[in-house]
Amino acid sequence: MTQEGAEARTRRGGKARRPGWTLRFADPRQEAAFRRDYFHQSLHQVRVSLLVGGFLYAVFGLLDARIVPDATTVTWIIRYAVVCPLIAAVLALSYTRCFERCVEPAMALVGLVGSWGIVAMIAAAAPPGSYLYYAGLLLAATFVYTFMRLRFVPATFVNLATLVLYESVALDAAATPPAILLNNSFFLVSINVVGMSACYYMEHYARTDFLRRMLIRDQAGRLETALAQVERARREAEEQSRRDALTGLFNRRHFRDILAVELERARRSPSPVSLILMDVDRFKRINDTCGHATGDEVLRRVAQCVGRGLRRPDTACRYGGEEFALLLPGSDGHAARHVAERVRAAVAAVTVGHPGGPAAVTASLGVATMPAGESWDADILVDRADRALYAAKRAGRDRVCVWEGGEAMPA
């Protein structure tokens, strides 16, 4: 059901274009959904009504011997051989999977057989007992309309059929005084009018409530979807805010955050943490001679070299300008030197074409490692990797230097 359709139906008081008094929804799928919902909402009450109805039908049999002694055998056959076994069978059926498909005809059959059984008792009994059993029809009609959870149409069919049968039997019985027949007919018609109205508005309310719940469910689903989209957009925006737009690597802000986290984790483990800082050699000359477009392409190609072959815990970022950083949690100095040399060789193999001819690219790298068991501040680790980087530049570029023993040494 769409939100607009559900809202329109709810504004029309839950009628949802019903074809008159039948209360059926015009949309077969909506009607089928309501039937399923009505069944599950009513199943407990249906079972209770069968238990209560069967109990009352059986208990009233104790009065048969005193009220209609001439027809006790007939009434007990009706009660204990027909109606009560039928109620028990339908109650047992209510615990099977097929009950949802046959709940209405089964309950209508119980109501019809129970009511017609009372009419049969009235026909079999002699006055004045037959007059007294008429009250059972009023109870049965009330039961069918309000307690058995039958919908309006089948409940009305059961009780109008019972009314017609009673009038036929009462008119055929010459012993029924006209005043009693008139009185009984008036009350039976009245209970049907009241019961039909009550049953109609109970189903009307059930359908309106169903539409409102469907509307709330639909709106809740839409809200959940919208919130999920907002959350996804927030995560994407947060992710983008931590990424460098040109290279796709993480930016410096994210690097500083993750560096603090990894250093704290290394203190608790304990485990080593290595940092590689890398600077593209003579990048300003590349920009000046080849153009900024070529310079951007160089940065993208270098970023691919830095990010290629990373382990899951490693983090590569663009540290600023033409400078890159590679954080290697759990890697000792030997492993970090190996990674740095691999990155240096990969960058040295990069060439970027431009109108003046291919541009060669090299990079200088500095490595610093916090050994396991030690506790360094983030600024100390960055400063030592930075000193190793500048040592590599002073030594002629296109090389790796490592901070060791208080000074930067060639790898």
User: Which class best fits the helix and strand makeup?
Assistant: alpha+beta
**Could you say how many structural domains there are in total?**
2
Strand order of the largest sheet: 2-3-1-6-7-8
Q: How many distinct helices?
A: 14
Q: What is the element string, with H for helices and E for strands?
A: HHHHHHHHHHEHHEEHEEEHEE
Low-confidence stretches: 6-19
Number of strands: 8
What percent of residues are in strands? 5-15%
Helix % is 55-70%
User: What best-fitting shape do the alpha-carbon axes yield?
Assistant: rod-shaped
Rounded mean pLDDT score: 88
First CA to last CA: what distance?
69 Å
Alpha carbon gyration radius: 44 Å
In short:
With 411 residues, the chain is α+β, with helices and mostly antiparallel strands.
How would you describe this protein?
The chain is an alpha+beta fold. The protein folds into 2 domains: 3-221, no CATH class; 252-410, Alpha-Beta Plaits (2-Layer Sandwich). The chain contains 14 helices and 8 strands. The strands form 2 sheets. A 6-stranded mixed beta sheet has the order 2-3-1-6-7-8, with helices on both faces. The two termini are 69 Å apart. Mean pLDDT is 88; it is low at 6-19.
